[in-house]
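Support request, please re-run this one:
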Amino acid sequence: MTVSAEDLQMLADTAREWVSDNAPARAGLGRDPALGASQWRGVAEMGWAGAAVPEETGGAGFGFVGLGALLGEIGREIADIPLLASGIAASLVARFGSDVARYETLPGLLSGETQAALAIGEGAHHGGALSTTATRTTGGWVLNGRKSWVQGAASAAVLLVAAQGDTPMLFLVDAQAVRHEAIDSVDGRAFAHVILDNVAVTDDALLAGGGDTVARAVDLARIGLAAEMVGACERAIEITVDYLKTREQFGRKIGSFQALQHRAAQMLVDLELARSSVQAALAAADEDRPDLEELAILAKYMAGEAIHLASSEMVQLHGGIGMTSEHVAGNYIKWARVSEALLGGNAFLGERYATIKGY
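Re-run finished. Output below.
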């Protein structure tokens, strides 16, 4: 799948304008569910959920590089828009779904009418051993278990659930068949634990590919989240550098002090390293490369390092106002800390990367 650089730039420019107009980062606590629904309708109307799905199966044909560009713009404004889950779900159903799933569920995912959530994680590392079980029955499966930190679970119509049968498996599950336990997340995003209690699904709900499909879902989720983190990092640095150029101390703009220039330069270095890692991982996803897992881990790790530094410096370099709820810096650091922990924190990712590389 090849998309020109000009088309990708046009897609990103359009997304930046729409997200900054309709879902800008705001200071203060709390998010408005009605506003979230309105934002999702806008995303659906533009067909973003089908960005990574090939045109021959009804998508927009921008590949994961295109989906990553959209997620980066959502990340810039730390908007609670669950495109990551729906975009990845659409790509997985288009490729691995049964004929019934591709006929009945995929059109809604592509149009955005059907919102999806990724129920793939359990415990702290999201992607390790699965405790959720899939038990064979006549003509289907019964699922039992608990999935943690599922973004957008309450508003989703379908869930992609990873469960352990003879091998790891990925199922399409009606969201009405599960229970939710809402999580009071520090950054205000809509997360929930999902409880599956004897949830029966048919064979048509099973995605092909077994453990490879589960692994791909985890890899894509890490890459998509890393793309959002790079966007947030970029915007945090922009806001901070703008402040350094305007705030005066001792009769000078504080951005003229060399020590602060060094700190800004380090943020930009980390951002570029993270951006390059994410772009490599997105390209690998489009090319189906066998080293996708290590590139996904590297992308999430580097994005975590970059956003950790940028969000911390954003608060510090804004001085006192960075500590108040009236300034958006506080929201960026909360969003960053939650994102750093999702799908595996950097200690876990670093160890996993070292194992893969044989260090």
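The two ends are 34 Å apart (CA to CA). The beta strands are 116-119, 133-137, 140-151, 158-164, 168-174, 179-183, 191-202, 248-249, 252-253.
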